Automatic annotation (TrEMBL):
<feature type="transmembrane region" description="Helical">
    <location>
        <begin position="67"/>
        <end position="88"/>
    </location>
</feature>
<dbReference type="InterPro" id="IPR013057">
    <property type="entry name" value="AA_transpt_TM"/>
</dbReference>
<dbReference type="GO" id="GO:0016020">
    <property type="term" value="C:membrane"/>
</dbReference>
<feature type="transmembrane region" description="Helical">
    <location>
        <begin position="186"/>
        <end position="207"/>
    </location>
</feature>
<feature type="transmembrane region" description="Helical">
    <location>
        <begin position="380"/>
        <end position="400"/>
    </location>
</feature>
<keyword id="KW-1133">Transmembrane helix</keyword>
<feature type="transmembrane region" description="Helical">
    <location>
        <begin position="127"/>
        <end position="148"/>
    </location>
</feature>
<protein>
    <submittedName>
        <fullName>Amino acid transporter, transmembrane domain</fullName>
    </submittedName>
</protein>
<feature type="transmembrane region" description="Helical">
    <location>
        <begin position="41"/>
        <end position="60"/>
    </location>
</feature>
<feature type="transmembrane region" description="Helical">
    <location>
        <begin position="160"/>
        <end position="180"/>
    </location>
</feature>
<feature type="transmembrane region" description="Helical">
    <location>
        <begin position="412"/>
        <end position="437"/>
    </location>
</feature>
<keyword id="KW-0472">Membrane</keyword>
<keyword id="KW-0813">Transport</keyword>
<keyword id="KW-0812">Transmembrane</keyword>
<feature type="compositionally biased region" description="Polar residues">
    <location>
        <begin position="10"/>
        <end position="20"/>
    </location>
</feature>
<feature type="region of interest" description="Disordered">
    <location>
        <begin position="1"/>
        <end position="25"/>
    </location>
</feature>
<feature type="domain" description="Amino acid transporter transmembrane">
    <location>
        <begin position="39"/>
        <end position="432"/>
    </location>
</feature>
Length: 449
């Protein structure tokens, strides 16, 4: 490997690893990739996961989850979504070395279990999932920049699409400079500090506003029919809040033993990692009720300088978080077309990333500016990709892979999960498409929201 930043692993190489069923050591086949794998501690991977959970998306959960569900539905829904998501992710994590092969991509695992068609279908679902998440991140980054602008010059000269374009350019520059997911390293520490800045700011200012406000309305807004659709859409937001749809890709970076280390990272994510998200979601809703903004920092009142710091922190954190969710696409393009040789910072490798990653994010940025409806994107992403990838596919893959070791009751449990989440995915997709249609008729393309 030498001094190269590239950790290229031959598709025929073997390593000694623990199986999923005990402490017995076996040879595990390693797939080919142009990115680093098996280099990170479980703690670093835990921070990758919590960076996704506590991204600037948390500033929208008070409005996107609590407002349509209310106190009972929102609190119970978040707790159930946490437990169910941990369970579903643990199923996928335990299949990482299934069949003596290490499956570093979600599509590799599905293809190994089901065949070529499932490989393609899973890759399609995952691409849609990650593209929608990245689109939402660029919308968020643009909203953060616009919020800073409005604090000092509310003249409508600079509109949201302009800020989205700026955000897309910065995200592309970061993507070009950081070659792979393991290369984040110190940036994960930076992202943690940034997330604490905007979460604590939103918490403190929301608490202040809530204490000073005597009356708030917690009723679920809308007609009976519209509430049905918004409730279903909010359920998709619940699962979107906790799941990446790219767990095998993240697990690929972790050191051996990969299953037990990944479980540690997941436990970290779903315990300490969810506390900030819970806090800002519940306090934001408590402070403003059903008038909570879809971007919490737009609801809070306080010193302009403090709100500026919080919005800039949210913007910078979003740039880092987007890189995580774009990394499977980068890995695919780098492995298939990059032919990386030598340092990742050499001119040829840099120019490749400029063209390929810059082009990919340019498409994301265009879609973000065209349809900047953040809550709708969260609902649609949860419906058409997060539900299938995280719950339906996870349960069915585990059922197929472990069918000889499961009791009849366990098999029934997994089938119930598959049927329930399949139904929820269909209903949530219908609700999300309706929301997008309604918003598209209300706002023009390239809307200045």
């Amino acid at each position: 490997m030498g001094s190269s930043d590239r950790h290229h692993v031959s598709s025929t190489s073997k390593v000694v690893a623990n199986t999923n069923d005990g402490d017995e050591h076996v040879d595990v086949e390693m797939p080919e990739t142009a990115h680093q794998i098996s280099t990170d501690s479980w703690f670093q991977v835990g921070f990758v996961l919590t960076t996704g959970i506590n991204s600037a998306y948390v500033l929208g959960y008070s409005g996107a989850i609590m407002v349509p569900l209310g106190w009972v539905g929102g609190v119970v829904g978040l707790i159930l979504a946490t437990a169910i998501s941990l369970y579903a992710n643990s199923l996928v994590a335990k299949l990482h070395e299934f069949g003596g092969k290490r499956h570093i991509r979600y599509r590799d695992l599905a293809g190994y279990i089901y065949g070529k068609k499932a490989y393609s279908a899973t890759w399609g679902l995952q691409y849609v999932n990650l593209f929608m998440i990245n689109t939402g991140y660029i919308i968020l980054a643009g909203q953060s920049l616009k919020a800073v602008y409005v604090l000092f010059r509310d003249d409508h000269v600079m509109k949201l699409p302009y800020f989205i374009a700026i955000a897309g350019f910065v995200c592309a520059a970061f993507a070009i400079g950081v070659p792979h997911l393991s290369g984040l390293r110190i940036w994960l520490g930076v992202s943690t500090v940034l997330s604490f800045v905007y979460i604590l700011t939103a918490l403190v200012l929301s608490l202040k506003d809530g204490i000073q406000t005597s009356a708030r309305d917690y009723s679920i807004p809308g007609t009976a029919m519209s509430r049905i659709f918004t409730t279903i859409g909010a359920s998709a937001n619940l699962v979107f809040a906790f799941n990446t749809g790219m767990l095998p890709e993240i697990q690929a970076t972790i050191r051996q033993p990969v299953v037990s280390n990944m479980m540690k990272a997941l436990y970290f994510q779903f315990t300490a990692g969810v506390v900030p998200m819970y806090a800002v979601t519940f306090v934001g809703y408590w402070a403003y009720g059903n008038s909570t903004s879809s971007y919490l920092l737009n609801s809070v009142s306080g010193p302009s300088w403090l709100k500026t710091v919080a919005n800039v922190s949210a913007f910078l954190h979003t740039v880092i978080a987007l890189h995580i969710f774009a990394s499977p696409m980068y890995e695919y393009l780098d492995t298939k077309y990059g032919r990386v040789q030598g340092s990742a910072l050499e001119f040829r490798n840099l120019s490749f990333r400029i063209v390929v990653r810059g082009g990919y994010l340019a498409i994301n940025t265009f879609v973000s500016a065209l349809l900047p409806f953040l809550g709708d994107f969260m609902s649609l992403t949860g419906a058409i990709s997060t539900f299938p990838l995280t719950f339906i596919l996870a349960n069915h893959m585990y059922l197929v892979a472990k069918r000889t070791k499961l009791s009849s009751l366990q098999k029934l449990w997994h089938w119930l999960n598959i049927c329930f989440f399949g139904t929820m995915a269909v209903l949530a997709a219908i609700a999300a498409l309706r929301l997008i249609a309604v918003d598209s008729s209300t706002y023009s393309l390239f809307a200045d929201l």
